[in-house]
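Example 3.2
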Amino acid sequence: MKRFTKMFFALALVLVFTTAALAAPKIGIMTGTVSQGEEEYRAGEEMVEKYGKDRVIHVTYPDKFMDEQETTISQMMAMASDPEVLGIVICQGVPGTAAAIDKVKEVRDDILFVIGQPHEEPFMISSKADILYEIDQPARGVSVVEKAKEMGAKTFIHYSFPRHMSYPLLAQRREIMEETCKKIGVEFVFVNAPDPTGEGGVAGAQQFILEDAPRQVEKYGPDTAFFSTNCSMQEPLIKSVVKTKAIYPEQCCPSPFHALPNALGLKVENKGDVPYILKAIDEKVRELGMGGRVATWTAPIQMNFIRAGAEYAFDFANGRFDNKKDIERAKFSIEKAAGAVKVRPYDAEKAPNMLMIVGESIIFGR
């Protein structure tokens, strides 16, 4: 009887592993919540709808991710505990992502990791993940300011807080913005705003923007361009800019879907319909007398990081390629998702797997 029981147990194990091997592979997607990153969250939902709940696991990291990094780690570990999950896409790559990848690799070295907009030190995080997509922040240090000047800006207000200014790429972008302002004759003003992950939360940060932006316009005049490094601040900032007839060159994460529709009172039925939303925003901007004063990128960059990441992860999971760091394939995936974009490596030698992206810009009402 004992011998029969052992044989039965062994056969059962073989059956379990055989079934897992034959099952359709899955991927995991980790995004922010609606309050901290609606673009990413909706893209995660889109991937669940596209591929099915049986193929995509979508989880979120906490709003106060700085204080709750253990939750980020446990969410990642939970996805990795499913043996059918062969790829994980994270956007944004908040602090704690590198530690979470390390934890997963202790028990699973077969999982592919794709990160959209990593927050952690570039060389360190690029050594942990396989492919990383990042907005080309240094390039934007020039392009955002030059666009603001083209739109009529005489002053450039930069809202941020110490946590974001500790991120190397954001700090570098801020320095380049200040240098560019000096070079082209625009006054640069840095304003310390509350951190949405801090005591006052998202609501406190948003209230600050609603109160401070009009004060800045009163001080510097309507030919003032506003830029904030935080996603949750974009909607109140756009509302304030429209109210004061100031200038809004683009979001921290440029996209026609990021905060603009809500701030302008537009309904979005389908977040994949880019031509529709560009036309709707353009018409609304003209109606509000803000032609030439509001701009963004034509493609939703954060959503496209997830779309490209999910396709890349599924191709790997389905055995279409073996090299996790297939950079040419990763470039093709983001170009397929986002259309006309410029792509370059962060560092061709030390971090060729971190791909820096610049999209096409559009000024509404022109």
